[in-house]
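Task card 7
Instruction: Convert sequence to structure tokens.
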Amino acid sequence: MADYKQAALWKTAFGDKGDGLDPKRGELVGAYDRFRDRVALLLAQIQRELPDLTLHDITHVDALWRVASEIAGPDFPLNPAEALVLGGAFLLHDAAHCRAAFPGGVEELSQTVEWHDAAAQRKLVAGQMMEGSPGFQAVLFDTLRVLHPKQARKLAFAKWSDGVGDLLHLFPHDELREAYGHIIGQIAESHWYSPHELEVFAAKTVSAPVCLAPAAWTINPLKIAILLRVADAAHIDAKRAPRFLLAMNRPSGVSQEHWRFQARLHQPHCDTARTELVFSGSSFPVTEQGAWWLAYDAACLADKELSAADHLLRDHALPRLAAREVAGVRSPESFARNVPTEDWHPVDASLRISDIQSVVERFGGAKLYGDEPHLALRELLQNARDAVVASRALGALEKTEGSITVHLEEKEGEDWLHVTDTGIGMSRYVLVNVLLDFGRSLWRDTALRREWPGLAATGFDAVGSFGIGFFSVFMLGTHVKVTTHRQTCGTEDQNEQWVLELVKGIDGRPSLRAPLHGEALKRHGTRVSVRLLDKTKLLKVKKTSLDIFSGLSNTKEAPLTLTQVVGALAPALEVDVFTKEANGEVVKTVVAGDWRELEPLRLIDRIAPGRVALYSQWLSNDLGVAISNLSPMTGSQGEMKGRCAIVEHSDSLFGLQAGIVTVGGLYGGTIHGFAGIMVGKQADLLNRSEAIPLVEQDALSKWADNQANLLRAANKLTWQKSAKLLALGAGHDELLVITHGTEDWTANRLAHELKNLDEIWLLEHRECQYESDTDEVTKSDFERNLDLDPKVFVLKSGTAQNEFIRSTHWPSQLFMDRLTQPAQVFEKIANDVWPDCDLTNAEAQVIAHVSGVPIYRDVKIIYRTKHPAETADDSSNPNSN
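Output:
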């Protein structure tokens, strides 16, 4: 009997039960055997195709039965149909790691986006690689690695021609392939999902096909997908990396390390009493340190999979696995008890992510923040701000003390950017274990209580929360130095100050040392220094616009000063900010809290420094309104929640807007239709690209009413501004909500005029636009000469739910009980003035003329009193006789 048939899960599913269904079990076993035989031939291609990979052949598949059984435990329930699907997923999950799994072979693969991406990332030309060359093999590997889970989903139905007219299926049993092929493919693909994505299987069940009657074996796909994932993650033993094959193949680079670590590991076993999966192995010598660390990383990954699996199984009331965590992964020292080292001790001071480079590049740099290096500077300013405010909270600084200095320095032909704060500084532990732990924020970590007892109790609220902002510094340059002086030294700090230096960015290991002469800080705080890759890219403003005639975009650029950039990023900071250009004087760029009193034009120019450079004619009407109407929003406790004005248009300036929401005084996101600043909180986005205002309902309404009064007094109130103010809680009585003829009417005037009318025809604003398909006039003639019927009233457009902030419905949630749209105001007035009114929908009515030509639209006709069913006078209907 084959080894895998000795596994507990196999015996549970296919062992004789004497229940009359053993023949059906035998049929499933036969189907799996034939399926396995064919897939084994496909899997054999992988080692020939990609010899650097550890074994992905049939021995790996067979071993998964053993590993899954060890993890699940002897009592884990698995019926025969579930076992067939699990076995099928075992067979297919890695089977597409070879060109033979793709009908078109290399020609098909080389046409994929994934192939071209892989070539570009390796700086190779996709069409100029010789088959078999190192570059070709690398691109083939990269492409298959990306595509294999997607292709695995299709393989249950894959078929090949035998050359004489017959088609041979990989899964030869027709009825079972049709019944289970799709779910096998989905589960095989899911081994590449994130654990939470397995939730897609939670609501699925698959009943037995008729070919298995009278058996009623129901499949739970979530349970099967979990078994595949945990078994695959935990199969890291010598069976996948035979030492003799390692000696023959001689893989290189990281592949060699994978072979070496697996070659030294024994079969994992489950300690059922501790619910732990235990990895053990032979000793790793000093020359194989890298391999040991890969073994540790792989065990940590298996631990995460087991933890995620246990959560999913518990959440969905499914039987739990016997192994729910991996023994010893909480520290390298613990893991070394079972996987020993020889003549060296594993002490981990590196970033605690298994694939550090790709994760940091994706979530800590340009892929997260886009091509906007100034946002990396914002992250550094944010960290500096948090450090100063924390120091104030602890009492080391008075409420008005502390500062941030941003300095550009030219040194030996290189440009360096320094951001220095006088905040709390960092201990050696925080510098090494927290700052460099991607995704770990000290402010949200349990270590905060040990590092700074009492800080959390002060109500201190950091802007930073994700623990990834520091890594954005690598957008600016790869050589980074962090110099820090903790305001009170910890017991572990032999030195008063530390310097953490990363010369090669995330590609190299950091060094920790005492500061050299000239590097030490004069007082507590932190200085982050980065050698800039491109200073000009940081200090410029861009404006891209569309030429409506040519359809082409046009980009303008203009230089900015460091003072302008820093001012735009920290416009409302409650900490003094100084800037110093290379060889220049120190400039006090932001006085703590000065945004509350700063002259309006200076505040707008701080927010949008590109206004003068690129917008010398920037919507002069709106700019004048903004300067005149900039007014405070005051909260219930007298605190200022904003200082801004409503404007009709808002355009992108310096990648920002003339209206912004600040978080902790720093730029947090834009707010459309505003000029000025609102105080807010960050939206829950990694790149912190949007923020939500914190102003309360009453304060916002009061401010909106004041804006309406200012605009009316200056004769600057338009229906567009009225719509915005209505959405922001302003009283509707004197806002423009409807058009009659050439006049925009306020709500009060509408109520007054309705008293003298018996009938109105209502159109929405968009229905009064030119319609080329139906209007028998030119667009220009329509726009110049449209003469609306006196009965016609045009209801003005309201604001969209995401009018102000693109990803949220703010502020609609504040005004659920208010009239915030012109249509709502009209409905209330109509019902108040005409309590017995009647509404009829009428099609193709003449609503206007253009140079004598009738214009037809569908309208809502509202009568003062109940009216007969007829829609309108036949004379207005073009189809009447």
